[in-house]
Every structure is written in C-alpha cells, then in structure tokens.
C-alpha cells in the first residue's frame, strides 16, 4: 500500500493542541497495526529551534541523530514510542536555507527563484521524503501556526498542491476552537466557520474538523458545522478538555477519529484490525487512579514557563504513574535559593537539578545540591545539573573553594568542568555542541548498571562542557564515581555518589527517551527511592 499523508492544520487560536491531536491519531493508527510517523512543519525563520529562548518556545527537544527540534517531537515520541529524526522537524528557515544553497550552486539554471514553485517544491520534497523511505503507512504532518498567518502560507499552498496530486492518499484535518460565552450561555461556532473560510481561501477544503471545546458540543451544532464547512457529519469531531493529554487518544477513539481517517484515505475501517489500546489504558488508569502523591522539587532557571522543562516533567510523571503515585512537581527558581532558605528543600522527597546554559542561578543550584547531599535527599542532576553536582563536590568535599565550570568562570584555577580541546576552537554558537545519542558504558557493579540492567546504553546529549578528567581520581577516591563512560572518547557521562540513597548525575538527557509505554529506568528508580523517603 502506498503511504498516506494526513495534514493537521489549526485555526482560531494557537495552543489548541494540534500536536496532541496528531500524536493521538498516530497512536490509534499504530495500535491498529500501521507504521506511523509524525512530521512538524514550523513557520518561523530560525533554521532550527536550538537557539530559541526556552521562555519563548518551551524546551528544545533533541532527536537521536542530534537535531534540535520543536518540543512537539517529544510528544510524538512519548505517544508513539518511535524515534524521530532531523527530517521530522522542518522550519521555514531550513527550507529557505536549502533553496538559497541550491541557487548559489546554480541548481536552478539561472531561473528566477520564487516561493512558488521553488519554496513549495522544497517543502513538498521534505514532506514526501518520509513516505519514500517505505517505512511508513501513514505520515502525519502537523503544520505549526494558525491558518491565515502570513508565515504559514507556503506550507498551506504545498498542502493544496499535494492534495491535488495525491487524491485519496491524503486527507486534511483542521483543528479549531469553539468558545463558550458565559454571559450568553452558548457555545459559538462562528470562529470555526471563519477559520475554515480562511483555509478554503488558501485552496484547502478540510476533510475532518476537530473542535476543541470546554463543553460538550450538541449534535445539532456539529451538524451545523458540517453543513457550513462542507464536511460529513461524522467527520466533525469534538475534543473536549481532558484532565491529562494522555487521555486524548482514548477520547479520539471514542469519537471515531481514526475510523474517519481510514475511510477518507481509502481503507475500510471494518477490514483493518481494531485498535489495541490495552497497555495505554493501563498506564492511564495508574496515572489517574493513584491516590498518594510523590513530592518532587525541580530546581532550575526557566521554571516560570511550564514547557521549558517539558520532557523532564513528562518523564517524572510517567515514572510516578508506574510507581502508583501522583506527581506533585514544584518548580523552584534557583536564583531564589539562599543559605537561609535552602532548608525549604527538606519538604521534598526528591530533588531534580535542571539542565541549563549560562551562570544565572548556578549558585542556588549548588546550595540545593549540597543540601540534598548532606541531608541524603534523593537528587537527580541532569546535564548542567550533573556538572553542578561535580562542582559542589569539588568545592565542599575536595576543598577547592573556587572550583567551577569555565562556562561560568573562565579563569578558575579548578576547572572541574571545561571545554574539550576541539571545542575550544569552535565559535559558532549554533554548531559547537555535542548533540544526539552517544553510547555510554556502565561500570560493573555500579548503581546505574543495576538500574539499567545492562552494560551499555545510548542516551541523547546537548551540551558543550564536560567533566575534566584531571579530577577523576580525586573525585572517586572521595566517593563520587564516574560510573558511565563514553567508550570511544572516554568522557564521563554519569556520576554517582556512594553512601547516599540516590545521588546520580547524567551528562546526557535521559528525559528525552522516556515514553508512555517505556518509562525511563533512571526516573523510575529515582521516584521509587523518593517514595521511600
Ligand atoms: N551549559 C552546559 C554545557 O553546555 C550544560 C548544558 C545543558 O544542561 N544542556 O555543557
């Protein structure tokens, strides 16, 4: 069977959850036995989201092949349990960059290079490339932004052309919002009608309309939407606010979204296997059914925006659910932690020290780590969190009071964290990081080996600085062990403290690979230990 392409566009407002709808549909198709992937097209001009401020755009997600991507790719992986790659995340910037490179090379043979056909051809080429691998029955393409925006026009135009070229091999889902006007006590479909008109004006007739709503939408209102927007009645689907995003696939199943998609793309839903969502439902029951809480502090510098540490939050909530606990995650701004108030941390069962860049808030992280180390509170340091664990140990246990990372103090005498020689030569901020999955050998009889239950793992990185080898022997002699090592470069990837209930730091980001059906072993074990406290 040829690959089917499902486009997901959004109207009325941003933040309606297109990514969750795309991931939920993907999950349902996958649970019927199809091979599915999801691609995100972002209309902004950054070449990738790597240099975007987390306050503005939430976390930067990293794929195994080292691409810095939109956080929606994290949802796709957590829902589908399939790895995404660079090609799953496209931005306008990337499209223009490659068109301009082609133009410079002379590939266009002197022709005037234009949005149509050159930019749209490039977009279409990226969309089709996933299907052309032969690895997927369905490619779901989420188009960022809101229909009607100037930025997303070339993407919508590409969808228009592809629909024309592909016929039944594709379908288009449009997600809108149905507001409830409290004063009038009414749900309103007018914004939806206008948004569909915008889409039609750009040449695309949606096949399916998903209505995001806070209240149940009555049948006659769905009929009205169907009539005004030229879609079949059963193709008007409501997406009621859900207590957790992980309930959305089951809600979409109940609404029949997957069945309509199958029908629109030329399948007979009755002749393909029924969705098997049993293990998903089990997870959800544990997530929603847990009665007791596990209380965790997340110490970081971007805590004001929920999405800034999205994958860490999700990985912790997977781990809590599988430990039959509800996650109570309290974010603490590291800048606000001082000698006098650091004991507030004793109220928590576990402390996560967040990743980060730059020196702001580092001293607060160091105080939090010292408190966790001395008071034997389970403590999980991720990337910069691990680096801070090593700095704190060097200062307060080894006695090097000026120990630091050269990221925060270039002239420190005790550069416990530093750049590797080859990195010192690179200056391009967008391109000097260790990115993507690297192997890591786990030390025999280490804690992490027992947790992972294997000798070698692969985890994703996103950083420039490393633990300085010159200090390894001294750290280990004092109980801080380098228990995970890159077999090729010898770089330290994990540190763990002996004689502490749980004090582990990872140079990599384990949170990126925790999924609903495969929660991450380090997070599971961290929560397990936190519960014991
Ligand atoms: N700033 C640190 C580095 O570049 C840590 C990065 C991170 O936490 N992701 O090495």
Q: Mean pLDDT, rounded to whole units? A: 94
Order of strands, widest sheet: 13-12-14-15-23-22-21-18-19
Q: Residue share in helices?
A: 25-40%
**Biggest sheet record:** 9 strands, mixed
Bound molecules: glutamine
Name the shape in a single word: globular
Q: Per DSSP, what share of the residues sits in E-state strands of 2 or more residues?
A: 15-25%
Q: Give the assembly state of these chains.
A: single chain
Number of strands: 23
| Radius of gyration over all CA atoms, rounded | 25 Å
How many angstroms does the end-to-end distance come to? 54 Å
How many distinct helices? Answer: 18
How would you classify the helix and strand content by structural class? alpha/beta
Low-confidence stretches: none
Please describe what this structure looks like:
The protein is 36% helix and 22% strand. The longest helix is centred in the first third of the chain and has 18 residues, at 115-132. It has 533 residues and is α/β, with parallel strands linked by helices. The chain is globular and about 75 Å long. Bound molecules: glutamine (GLN).
């Amino acid at each position: 069977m040829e690959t089917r392409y499902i486009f997901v566009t959004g109207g009325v407002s941003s933040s309606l959850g297109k990514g969750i709808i795309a991931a939920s549909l993907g999950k349902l198709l996958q649970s019927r036995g199809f091979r599915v992937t999801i691609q995100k097209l972002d209309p902004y001009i950054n070449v990738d989201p790597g240099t975007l401020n987390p306050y503005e755009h939430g976390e930067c997600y990293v794929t195994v092949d080292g691409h810095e991507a939109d956080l929606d790719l994290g949802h796709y992986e957590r829902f589908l349990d399939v790895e995404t790659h660079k090609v799953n995340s496209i931005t306008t910037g990337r499209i223009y960059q490659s068109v301009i490179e082609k133009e410079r090379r002379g590939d266009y043979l002197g022709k005037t290079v234009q949005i149509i056909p050159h930019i749209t051809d490039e977009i279409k080429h990226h969309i089709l490339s996933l299907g052309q691998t032969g690895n997927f029955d369905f490619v779901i393409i989420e188009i960022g932004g809101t229909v009607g925006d100037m930025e997303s026009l070339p993407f919508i135009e590409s969808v228009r052309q592809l629909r024309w070229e592909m016929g039944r091999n594709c379908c288009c889902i449009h997600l809108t919002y149905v507001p409830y006007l409290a004063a009038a006590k009414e749900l309103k479909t007018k914004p939806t009608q206008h948004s569909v008109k915008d889409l039609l004006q750009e040449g695309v007739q949606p096949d399916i309309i998903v209505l995001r709503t806070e209240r149940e939408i009555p049948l006659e209102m769905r009929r009205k939407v169907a009539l005004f927007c030229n879609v079949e009645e059963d193709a008007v689907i409501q997406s009621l606010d859900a207590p957790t995003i992980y309930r959305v696939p089951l809600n979409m199943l109940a609404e029949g979204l997957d069945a309509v998609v199958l029908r629109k793309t030329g399948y007979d839903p009755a002749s393909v296997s029924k969705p098997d969502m049993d293990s998903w439902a089990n997870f959800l029951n544990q997530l929603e059914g847990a009665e007791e809480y596990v209380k965790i502090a997340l110490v970081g510098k971007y805590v004001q925006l929920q999405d800034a540490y999205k994958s860490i939050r999700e990985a912790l909530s997977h781990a809590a659910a599988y430990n039959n606990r509800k996650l109570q995650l309290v974010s603490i701004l590291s800048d606000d932690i001082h000698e006098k108030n650091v004991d507030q941390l004793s109220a928590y069962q576990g402390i996560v020290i967040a990743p980060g860049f730059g020196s702001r808030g580092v001293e607060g992280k160091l105080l939090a780590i010292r408190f966790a180390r001395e008071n034997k509170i389970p403590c999980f340091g991720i990337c910069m969190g691990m680096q801070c664990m090593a700095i704190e140990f060097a200062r307060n246990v080894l006695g090097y009071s000026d120990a630091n990372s050269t990221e925060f103090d270039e002239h420190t005498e005790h550069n416990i964290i530093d750049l590797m020689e080859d990195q010192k030569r690179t200056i391009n901020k967008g391109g000097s990081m260790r990115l993507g999955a690297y192997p890591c050998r786990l030390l025999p009889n280490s804690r992490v080996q027992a947790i992972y239950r294997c000798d070698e793992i692969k985890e994703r990185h996103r950083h420039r600085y490393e633990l300085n080898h010159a200090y390894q022997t001294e750290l280990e002699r004092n109980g801080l062990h380098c228990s995970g090592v890159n077999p090729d470069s010898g770089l330290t990837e994990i540190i763990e403290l002996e004689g502490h209930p749980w004090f582990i730091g990872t140079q990599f980001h384990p949170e990126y690979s925790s999924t609903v059906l495969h929660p991450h072993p380090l997070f599971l074990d961290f929560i397990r230990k936190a519960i014991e406290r």
